[in-house]
């Protein structure tokens, strides 16, 4: 371990504010957020100011979000670092839109496509440029619905049970999850479309197509470098679209929708507890409750572990949502205090071979 490997890198946070939607304008809502020009700062109401790594106001386009906040992570992936992009926010605040969770190949050159399709395009562009390495790409797509992990790429009717195992060397492993090898961008987009069509979506009073589950789209990139292709580096990119935090009186959820909402909020509460435990300086060596929910187990490496992590906090500017917006801003503010220790993920066998050769 050189000094460079043990660098501590905080979780970066990008704040994304959507424009007021017609429903809010009809209800006479005003914007309660003020953006400080040329500073990554936002002021809520009249006095509370929050500063983040990046702030995107309602006029920001998808391309700007991608090139400013996501591109640096992708450069790290080709060097062998794990990366995670996490979209968090109230229901209807634009998470699935920002992540590109409803993407279909028909929208190929549409400027409004989100993070995931842009990442796929960029990975294959970079792959073309690096002719000296051999690449092997695989994708998996899962959702956490009512605390069950469902495999979105599984073709079988009766979906197999999926369990989480922890490997001391490789971290969290998901047993029974479909991993598909892909060789081209359209093939990877096909997997994304297939998974998106299988996601659990329901209608609530706040959002006609509300995500009822947390979804994680994972791209695994293995590259073999050098003349004899022995140096193998494996990096994973997790693209996470969380379901929105929601209040029953606003979504008017009943029956199954209400149960889903309770389960979603429970997962997000556990995530909040993990972020608080990691971000609080006074609780330096306190216990971090990763095991309280499936969501936090899967994100164990992304929060306080071996990964470059970006959290996109999505908020609505409407004053009717002000309370929720402040909650999201505080949540994101705590996430910035988390320190991760990303390392280059060299294949352990290859590393051992190199050591023996040097001896």
From TrEMBL:
Residues the entry annotates as binding ATP: 89-96
TM region(s), chain numbering: none
Keywords: ATP-binding, Coiled coil, Cytoplasm, Cytoskeleton, Microtubule, Motor protein, Nucleotide-binding
SMART domains: KISc
Record flagged with keyword Iron: no
Subcellular location: Cytoplasm, Cytoskeleton
Cross-referenced InterPro entries: Kinesin-like_fam, Kinesin_motor_CS, Kinesin_motor_dom, Kinesin_motor_dom_sf, P-loop_NTPase
Primary localisation category: cytoplasm
Pfam families per UniProt: Kinesin (PF00225)
Domain Kinesin motor: 10-338
Keyword Repressor: no
Family: Belongs to the TRAFAC class myosin-kinesin ATPase superfamily. Kinesin family.
Protein name according to UniProt: Kinesin-like protein
Naturally occurring in which organism (per UniProt): Characodon lateralis
Lineage, highest ranks first: Eukaryota, Metazoa, Chordata, Craniata, Vertebrata
Name of the encoding gene: KIF4
């Amino acid at each position: 371990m050189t000094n460079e490997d043990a660098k501590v890198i905080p979780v970066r946070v990008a704040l994304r504010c959507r424009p007021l939607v017609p429903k809010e304008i009809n209800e006479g809502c005003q914007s309660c957020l003020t953006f400080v020009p040329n500073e990554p700062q936002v002021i809520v109401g009249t006095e509370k100011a929050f500063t983040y790594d990046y702030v995107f106001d309602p006029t920001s386009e998808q391309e700007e979000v991608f090139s400013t906040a996501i591109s640096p992570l992708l450069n790290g992936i080709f060097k062998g670092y794990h990366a995670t992009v996490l979209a968090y926010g109230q229901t209807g605040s634009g998470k699935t839109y920002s992540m590109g969770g409803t993407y279909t190949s028909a929208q190929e050159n549409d400027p409004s496509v989100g993070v995931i399709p842009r990442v796929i395009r960029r990975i294959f562009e970079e792959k073309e440029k690096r002719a000296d390495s051999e690449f092997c790409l695989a994708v998996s797509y899962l959702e956490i619905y009512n605390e069950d992990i469902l495999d979105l790429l599984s073709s079988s009717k009766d979906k197999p049970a999926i369990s989480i195992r922890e490997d001391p060397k490789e971290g969290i492993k998901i047993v029974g999850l479909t991993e598909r090898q892909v060789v081209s961008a359209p093939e990877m987009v096909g997997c994304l479309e297939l998974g998106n069509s299988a996601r659990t979506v329901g209608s609530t009073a706040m959002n006609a197509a509300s995500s009822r589950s947390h979804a994680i789209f994972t791209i695994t990139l293995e590259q073999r470098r050098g003349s004899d292709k022995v140096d193998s580096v494996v990096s994973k990119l997790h693209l996470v679209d969380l379901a929105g935090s929601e209040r029953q009186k606003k979504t008017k959820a009943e029956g199954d929708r209400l149960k889903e909402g309770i389960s979603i909020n429970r997962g997000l509460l556990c995530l909040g507890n993990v972020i608080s435990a990691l971000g609080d300086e006074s609780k330096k060596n306190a216990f971090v409750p990763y095991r309280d929910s499936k969501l936090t187990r899967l994100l164990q490496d992304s929060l306080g572990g071996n990964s470059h992590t970006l959290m996109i906090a999505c908020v609505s500017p409407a004053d009717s949502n002000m309370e929720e917006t402040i909650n999201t801003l505080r949540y994101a503010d705590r996430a910035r205090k988390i320190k991760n220790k990303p390392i280059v993920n060299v294949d352990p066998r290859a590393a051992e071979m190199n050591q023996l050769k040097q001896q």
